[in-house]
Amino acid sequence: QVRLVESGGGLVQAGGSLGLSCAASGSIFRPNSMGWYRQAPGKQRELVATIGSGGRTNYADSVKGRFTISRDNAKNTVYLQMHSLKPEDTAVYYCNIHRTVPSYDYWGQGTQVTVSS
Fold first, then answer.
1. Which of 52, 54, 78, 53 shows the shortest CA–CA distance to 67?
2. What are the tens digits of pLDDT across the range 24-40?
3. b/e code 48-82 from CB counts within 10 Å (16+ = b)
4. CA of 81: how far to CAs of 8, 18, 41, in Å?
5. Is the predicted pLDDT of residue 50 greater than 90, yes or no?
6. Tens digit of each residue's pLDDT (9 = 90 or more) over 56-109
7. Which of the 8 DSSP states describes residue 66?
8. Which residues, 6+ apart, have CB-to-CB distance to 36 below 8 Å?
9. Can you tell me whether residue 117 is helix, strand or coil?
10. First-to-last CA distance in the chain?
11. Which residues pair with 69 in a beta bridge?
């Protein structure tokens, strides 16, 4: 059974930095896409960043230039480095791994990121 284990997150002041990691345990084919999403209270879950198997990245406009996503294919792990954090970055952050063939889509349990002003 595949399980995603997230770590990192916590409380930081505005302008600070945090790092998240998410490791997939279990036997899986290499994900086509690995990514991070977030959900703030009262809002829908939104994409933060994704990275393809070849390293191509995609970021939400709100985090471009501040966040960096990376992956370690050997460890089936995805990372998110967050800099210049803002109070509006406060949310529960979820990692996701996805593959088309064979098809799977897994989510982490979520980790809280709180940015104080």
1. 78
2. 998 888 889 999 999 99
3. bbbbeeeeeeebeeebeeebbbebeeeebbbbbeb
4. 10, 6, 22
5. yes
6. 999 999 999 999 999 999 999 999 999 999 999 999 999 999 998 888 999 999
7. T
8. 20, 22, 48, 49, 50, 69, 78, 80, 93, 94, 95, 96
9. coil
10. 40
11. 80
